[in-house]
Write a structure and sequence with these properties.
With 387 residues, the chain is mainly alpha-helical. The protein has two domains: 3-185, MFS general substrate transporter like domains (Growth Hormone, Chain: A, Up-down Bundle); 197-380, MFS general substrate transporter like domains (Growth Hormone, Chain: A), CATH 1.20.1250. The chain has 18 helices and no strands. It has helices at 3-19, 21-24, 30-37, 41-44, 46-58, 62-69, 71-88, 93-121, 126-155, 157-175, 188-192, 201-230, 235-247, 250-262, 267-283, 291-318, 323-355, 359-380. Keywords: Membrane, Transmembrane, Transmembrane helix, Transport. Its main location: membrane.
Length: 387
Amino acid sequence: MQKRYRWLLLGIISLGTSLRMPLTAIPPILDNIQKSFQLPASLLGSLTTIPLLCFAVLSPFVPRIASILGNEVTILIALLVLTLGNFTRVFSTNLLLIGTLFIGIAIAFTNVLVPAIITDHFPDRIGPITSLYTFSMTLFSAIGAGASAPLAVKFGWQGVLQSLAIFTLLIAVAWLPNLRLNHRLLPPAITAGKASVWRTPGAWWMTLTMGIQSLLFYTILTWLPKIMISRGLPQTTAGLMLGLFQVAALPAAYLVPRYTARVDRQQRLLWLIGFLFICGLAGLLIPSHAIWYLTLICIFLGVASTSMFGLCMTLFSLKATSAAETAAISGMAQAMGYLLAAVGPVSFGLVYGWLHSWTLLLLALILLTVVMIVAGLVVEGKKTIFD
């Protein structure tokens, strides 16, 4: 690998470390934030919803902006905005919301452009590079969720969040050598004479796959502890189970993109992911509070969720013929996907408030899993999204 690409590889891995941690560090310290700013409970939910809505609204516009500024320059600006958001959100309620908005904007841009950068600079190593990226994202997501509360006890929640600003600023400095590789995208309809991605049936199937994947992940992430508590587990044990849900996914985060890029067909992987999802969700229908049993369910759901995310991120590149196509497909799929992700946990919470039962909701998630696998099989059967 050329030396200049070593800096790019380091940058891609570093980006993965910074994209979920600012979000997953928040839930364990929500009580600290609420007490400091005297926030109503309704406002706390916005700290998760605002970034998801940013992902949904901004993702379609990212390729156009990157075509003007260039991928690598856009990433640098996003890192600086992410640093600003992490630093400012500890001073007041208004700055908490503004900082959260900045974080959502920054991550939306980076989410879309990283697959395009991998396609552009590593076309023959899409699987291995995507594996490193998703692994670092999953690992630091788990670290953010597990370490923020203990560190807040020692350093204060403000110190924890502002340490993330220092972290992202260092990543921005490490990204500077990559500006020499700055590449401006051209819309795929111009470069290849193809229809807009929004008028391409294959892109809609990809969007459906990504959308349901996002909804499943964020719904499970939000409500799994409460489901566990309703089964008789103590709150602390339920929190540990949520950590297990993320940690168990680390091998899948690394292995699935590599496998996806190495094989010609991904049918078996899709069937396996669907099997794990259904086993995990159906297992929650059984009112057991045995630790070994719930541990197994968390492993199934964690592996399935991260495997599907890694598969989608890799297919963005594999099912495109250029970085511009990858960015267009990624932008569209993530826009609709995160819109569903923002709506899913809230709507499921409302339904549970009416029914006071998880049964119908879990059955709905199983049905959505079947739809996701069918949509994934349609995408998998195409040579490219634009076929």
